[in-house]
Amino acid sequence: MADEERLIANNRRARHEYFIDEAVEAGLVLTGTEVKSLRAGRASIQEAFARVESGEVWLYHMHIPPYDAASIFNHDPERRRKLLLHRREVDRLGGRAAQKGYTLIPLRLYFRRGRAKVELGVARGKRQFDKRESIAEREARRRIERAVRRR
């Protein structure tokens, strides 16, 4: 129970669209209404990505809908959010993301010990033939599993 995790959002398309080379856990800087909306399980990270700008990592296009019970002090659903990482991690991720073809994408959004965390992946985009190859491998594994179950 000390290391309890509660999943809020999962970016399932990320593993289909990208090769994930490395994953890092980062904290999020949020406002109160954003936290309340996340606790209600409402968020989308499908279109989100991260960038390293002047020594800080920022998460763009993560959609956290406005909290219903909040008044005029609600947050902007699509605002950029700062990620909390150690300096060495920021430098390493910045160097990796600067390479041609690499980007930083969120894989999961979850609460760990009451704090909102995001799992950030260093990803390289797949081409169409890579996606077809992945689908073919997955189908082959399913056929093998079915055959084993039948015997």
Task: Characterise this structure.
This protein has 4 helices and 7 strands. It has helices at 12-17, 32-39, 87-98, 128-150; strands at residues 5-10, 18-28, 49-53, 56-60, 81-84, 102-112, 115-125. A hairpin with a 2-residue loop joins strand 6 (102-112) and strand 7. It has a 7-stranded antiparallel sheet with strand order 1-6-7-2-5-4-3. The chain has one domain (5-126): Small protein B (Small Protein B, Chain: A, Beta Barrel). It is of the alpha+beta class. Helices cover 32% and strands 35% of the residues. The mean pLDDT is 86. The radius of gyration is 18 Å and the shape is globular.
Give a nutshell description of this structure:
With about 150 residues, this protein is of the alpha+beta class. Helices cover about 30% and strands about 35% of the residues.
CATH homologous superfamily descriptor: Small protein B
Q: Could you list the spans in which at least 5 consecutive residues all have pLDDT below 50? A: none
Rg computed from alpha carbons, rounded to a whole number of angstroms: 18 Å
Averaged pLDDT, please?
86
Number of strand elements: 7
Strand content: 35-45%
The number of domains: 1
CATH class: Mainly Beta
Query: How large is the count of helical segments?
Result: 4
Shape: globular
Q: Provide the CATH topology.
A: Small Protein B, Chain: A
Furnish the topology, listing elements before pairings.
Elements (H helix, E strand, L loop, with lengths): L4 E6 L1 H6 E11 L3 H8 L9 E5 L2 E5 L20 E4 L2 H12 L3 E11 L2 E11 L2 H23 L1
Antiparallel strand pairs: 1-6, 2-5, 2-7, 3-4, 4-5, 6-7
